[in-house]
User: What shape does this take?
Amino acid sequence: MRAKSGLYLFYLDVVRPVLKSGRGLFGLVVVVAMVFMATAGPSVIPLDIEIKPSMRWCLPSLEHPLGCDYLGRDLLSMVVHGSREVFLVPFIATLVGVVGGMSVGLLAGYIGGRARRALTAVTDIWLTIPSFPVIFILAYVLPKSPLTIALLLALFSWPGLARALAAEVSSLKSRDFIEVCINLRLGKLHVLFREIGPHLVPFVAYNFAALFVANMTSLIGIVLLGVAPLNPTNWGYLLNQMIFTYRGLLIPSGSIIIFILVSVFVVIKLGVVFFAQALEEVFNPRLRAYE
Amino acid sequence: MELRALFPFAKILGRRLAYALVTIMIASTVTFVAIRSMPGDVLYTLAVSLAEELRITIEEARKIVYYIYYGIDVEKPVYVQYFEYVLGLLRGNLGYSTYFKRPVTYVVARALGWTVFTLSIGISLSFAIGVLTGMVAGFKRGSKLDSTLSTSLTILSAIPGYAIALFLYIILSARLGLLPARGAYSPDVEPGLNLRFIVDVLYHATLPILTYVVITFSGWSLLIRSNVAKILEEDFLKYAEARGISRRRIITTYVGRNSILPLVPLLALRIGGMVGGSTLIESIFAYPGMGYYLSIAMGIRDYGLLQGIFFMMTVATIVGVIVVEMVTPFIDPRVRREVVTT
Assistant: This one.
């Protein structure tokens, strides 16, 4: 009985507002589709590896919903089979990055003083390193495995979040209810994790989504430049072959297929961002758009 | 009095220079790792051709390759190698490009200008356009114009930079043939201070600059919009209105300045990302800046070029950040005071 009412409250507070906004619904559909694509997708849609010269760059049809690639293979099957890597690598990178960013940010914001200044300096320095070339170079020389790439992406995922969190925590610290907790002699860890922590959840959740799409963009960018050939169905590799090897941009039908592939990526990116925004609005009503 | 006025700048500069040193150390560690983990076959090919040229053994040639091409003496302990290498970089020894058969500084000197030229114009334009559109959306908050503008800007900021570059390339260059997408100027134009060359350079730079602007202005615009919306609620604004201060002054000084200022430090922090992002943009347009050479160096496995270009990218970023940071106290009196008191 209790669980049911809890579930109903969850529906009222979280699900309904998300569904009510057009963007939120769009985001939810995209996120569900992503999960389906990366888990069950490959077993539902078989990988098409047969080379059919007559079908090169064929336009979308009922048989090939997204058209065909430069070898006449079904693009949808390539996209679905590539999705696991395209989603999982940035996901791991973001997870590691967010944990790192939270540790540094909470520490810097909570301790204050000299430790905070030191951590801020490290964060600021890290932010000014041209991250893309570093990932690019290290992805090139280090052993090529999905995990290496994920960790490299994580290396540059933490500073932005850390900086923002430090500011957030130090402003929360000066609020009355925290002063009360400190005067009640509640432990530092208790204050940090039980009192301050919950206020940061929507913020961190939104940053998680934003970082995830940023890392996905970087991953595809690195693979697009041909540095880290991970899986031959990685979208970046497909784009690389389409643009640089098979010169698809010079062929009208090739341009359309490239446009379709990029659009798939953009729709996913937008979906994740909108989903996160809808969630953030649910947790933080002040952000809701004027209606 | 003059000395005291200079103090905040000296303090910011000092801190930034200390940061710069650390950043350079990190960058040189990356290139050191890259060179030390150079695959054996690349090294072997270089050593063989050198051994044939100088009539020495391959083993000797291997050491010379490291020392002459990259400034690393493999006979010394690794930490000595590392420090000598970093000192060498700081002295301007960027290594030797095995592909161009010239010192890397020669290639960098040609590439740096194009990147700085396009990026600085691109960043300034995108910031200006972002501020303008953000102010309009912020002042008309809640209106139809605002919601259309914000929605389209959000969508725009979700499209990856390289996708925008590719679309602009397809539409403006491949389909319509309006803009060139190869090189920094036409091969038949004489480089120099003549009108034809300048026009041609601007013509070739339009596509990369346009790309930088389209990629980044939406981010600035959305930030300015939310800043303006926040400031419009402030009491000091109502007081200013009550005092009868002209609308123009309220828009430019009271709202404008206050909403732009918090973005300036952010601009400094974003420069690194933009310099790095030029790798993809420049290689898509084959624009001969540093990003283009970086991707070339990867493709042909030219480690000397790779380290030199990356090192210079880092230095360019640091200089950009310092320039922006030094401007801050001039435009923000609060920063001036803060620096003096702490």
User: Anything to note?
Assistant: The radius of gyration of chain A is 22 Å.
